[in-house]
Amino acid sequence: MIKALLFDLDNTIIDFWKMKKMSVDAAVRAMKDAGLEMEHDKATKMLYGFYEKLGYEYQYIFERFLKKAIGRVDWKMLANAVVAYRKVRAGFMEPYPGVTRTLLKLRQEGYKLGIVTDAPRLKAWIRLTSMNLDDFFDTVVCFEDTKQQKPNSLPFEKALKNLAAKPDEVLMVGDNIERDIKGAKKLGIRTCFARYGYVQKFISPKKGKVESGADFEIDRFEDIFKALKNEKSK
Q1: No. of H helices and E strands in the chain?
Q2: Model confidence pLDDT, tens digit, residues 77-88
Q3: Domain boundaries in the chain?
Q4: 17-91 belongs to which CATH class?
Q5: 196 with 221: CB under 8 angstroms?
Q6: DSSP bridge partners of 170
Q7: Has domain 4-14+95-232 been given CATH number 3.40.1160.10?
Q8: Does the pLDDT at position 188 exceed 80?
Q9: Which residue intervals of 135-175 are DSSP H helices?
Q10: How far apart are CA 135 and CA 174, in angstroms?
Q11: Does 24 score more than 80 pLDDT?
Q12: For 71, left (φ over 0), alpha (ψ -120 to 50), or beta?
């Protein structure tokens, strides 16, 4: 019987890709306004190439971009990029529809709730706090807690320990098949694929419908209740 739910953060609770795409677009436009002579699409593709290589939390992405694009860090361009990125990011930091009321109902029904994210601790808490979601969770496991990223078992084991729950009492909800779904299944945790948050890679995306291998799949966040109902009926 499911007694607790674990959630990935980005693209499961937060519409991370929407925020990232809008923020990067604003940064590129700002650099072009500050003198960058490069086509918008080419600059955007180069930035996403760095993100996929270095990680979407990499803090010095624009410095790396400018060194490759123009051979040096132009501080005016850099400052414009950072300011534009931060302004737009703040405006698009929002949960998916139905997240708040669903989390509230889950708490009311007695479920324990947790987050397992690869994001740095401060960034994770800033995102949760900015959306007024920080009080919903009994545990938030971030990168610093285990120094390991999913699908490594340690982040999941840490969350299970913090919740005092057994693997078969927990449902993991996430958008990343390799990290969230396969990582949780290795420990015997039930899994739910957040299909609504799944985004093909920006660089060389794969074609066709993805097969998640999860126990359940949902197209909206609030469909979690359908997964829980199906689990109870087994």
Answers
A1: 10, 6
A2: 999 999 999 999
A3: 4-14+95-232, 17-91
A4: mainly alpha
A5: yes
A6: 4
A7: no
A8: yes
A9: 143-146, 153-163
A10: 20
A11: yes
A12: left
